[in-house]
Amino acid sequence: MVSRRVQKLEDELGVSLFERSPSGARLTVAGHGFICSSRTILRQVQTAFADARSAGVAATGRLRIGLVAGFVAQRP
Asked: What CATH number corresponds to the domain at position 7?
């Protein structure tokens, strides 16, 4: 199943990501570059999720409080 998905990805990219042999497989230069870029993207997505969650629970952001003179009780 994984092999078919990798083969489909290679077909879509038009490049081999692995050199296959009877003793196993190893990344090609293109495969190495693809993995490095994919890891960078994954880290960015994880950061975006964490940032969104933090903002959603008010863990980050700004709170501004202001007073309008007309609403402030005045002492006699």
From this structure: 1.10.10.10
